[in-house]
Amino acid sequence: MLSEIETVNELPNYSIDYLMKKCGPWVNCRGILAQNNQIYSMKIVLQNNTITNAFLHISNVESNQECLFVPITRLILLRFTSSQLMLTFCDYDDKSMLFLDDMSNERQFELFISQFHICATLSKNCDDNWRTTNEQFLSKNETAKNIIPKANFIDPSTTSCAISPVIFDENVRNTWMKRSRMMNTSYFTKPVELTICCLTWNVGSGHPNQAVENDLSEVAQFDADIFFFAFQEIDMSFQSIINGKSSKTDEWSNCIANCFADKKNYTIAYSVSLGGVFATAIFKNDSPIPITVDLPKKMRLGLHGMTANKSAIIFPTTVGENAKINFVGCHLSAHQANTEARNQELKSLLNYASMNSDYVVLIGDLNYRINLSYEECLLKIKNNDLDQLFENDQLNQARKIDSELAKFEEGKVSFMPTYKFDKNSDVYDTSPKMRIPSYTDRVLVATSPKRLAIGSSTQFVFETDIIHDLFPGAKGFIYEQRYSSDLLPPNFPEKPKYILYMNRNIQFSDHRPVQGVLLLKVPVVIPEKLEEFNNYSLKKIDEMSSLAKPILEPKSLDLIVGVKKTIEVKFKNVAVSWAPWRVVVDGDEISVSPSSGVLFPEQTGTIYITGIRKTAIASKFQIHGKEKYSRNVVIESSDGIPLCFIQVRVSNKLSM
């Protein structure tokens, strides 16, 4: 198992490829770029799975080269015909690109155009961080003005096209379900308290003995849902520092296992070491809150990531309804003067661990010192002047002036400095080095911005229901009930409470262990409410399928036309989908033109029916109560679904 654990050498670069992996798929369209006649993939992807934060991603299909990644906003103008679409990038000197439909997917342009327009209309996205890449591609591939045809391009804002990709692709459906589920946590969840017990201890290369096991067993008696322990300097040998592996890992793993041996309702998820750092995560099996600890990640911090004398181990954990907690056990740079190095290491860890997480629980020997002289510090300790000791703590001071470090919360420090003690003694360092007593060992928590509403709603929320507001007159809705597309104000995550923050008095190393117990409120599913949500989600998908079907009005007509006479018939597409149509006639007594076409939403089409000769035996229909002979003209969709029935009789009397 340990060989599978990922070692993180550096923070992710925010490349297009990296960000694409963080976005949910929405629309995948292919087009031929008129400028160079090459096929490009044009994708709409959703950051955080929301249509309010959409990106346009263009790549070359043949070379697989990433070409463009730009937020979809009103600063990109889209115009289209049934087989062409033109994009004009207003924020890039109005450069335009014309794409032709490569016909690889019958409805791909329709999907792209409808969703591009909706995403641009609702956009809350202005995060255009790839301008250099985008400008290079647009400058090289801008469609020349003489190539752009003089076609009647349509502005999507003049139509009500709103076909959804959810019904065509399972991956897209998953994107929609993730977003819908997140938006409805307020309906099917309730807040439940989660208790976390943390302990950090620099053990000074010692071997765990019975006294250590007894003390840790006492900690293990706490009724917590999750235990997270981190030990530093389990092994500071040259081999451990260079290759990160230690023979002492098993010693500390066995010690922890012994401490929890009589607690059968707990499982040790992982016990992992890197260099001198050893960390373990333990969770309660019968907790009312589902808990999943994912594969840990390891990060070397020594010598710019080269060595493991200073390192970190990260345990990504999911609790309840997709609440994310990253547990970090670490050992930062030592010595009084290295405050800035510690600050940078701590900020790097926070930057990495806070991605896709609600909480970062960071514990370890952070090595922050007290900025007092040795004598002043001892005097403050003697006088029990905790306020002055903490006031001069380097981390406390850094948090006051650094907005990133200020994201960390800490319990009230009501104990004496935990470093540095003489061996087997409660006396602070009396060696010639006279190390200044300090709060090196800490339990910190960083809380991400609120993103979910928990347990406060009595109705569903569906982002895609925005089409009710955008196109109120559209036909095809099969359920009268509609829902808000706006999120309720989020109330999760809230800042945690420290219900215990203390040092433990055991003479084993030159540090004292520090224990912190945290109380968090996390969302937990109410099963019957979740079932209601799932059932209604299926109904919404059915409605999307209905909205994807073209609807023509009128649906039926009875007409008479004279021989060698022509009548005009108009019909309108009242759906939110395109209506490719064709005419089917069941006899040769009439002719119809045009025989096919495409109607965009809200557009009106016209056909011309000409009588050739009087209708003979054919189907019967009533005009003024009398049976007359007629021919059937059917306007049907491209897949053969009848959209409009027209019964036509050719009469000699109307020819005069």
UniProtKB/TrEMBL annotation:
UniProt-recorded Gene Ontology molecular function terms: endonuclease activity; exonuclease activity; phosphatidylinositol-4,5-bisphosphate 5-phosphatase activity
What are the Inositol polyphosphate-related phosphatase domain coordinates in residue numbering? 192-526
Q: Which UniProt keywords apply?
A: Endonuclease, Hydrolase, Nuclease
**Could you mention a single GO BP entry for this protein?**
phosphatidylinositol dephosphorylation
Taken from the record, one Pfam family name reads: Exo_endo_phos2
Q: What is this protein called?
A: Endonuclease/Exonuclease/phosphatase family protein
User: What organism does this protein naturally occur in?
Assistant: Tritrichomonas foetus
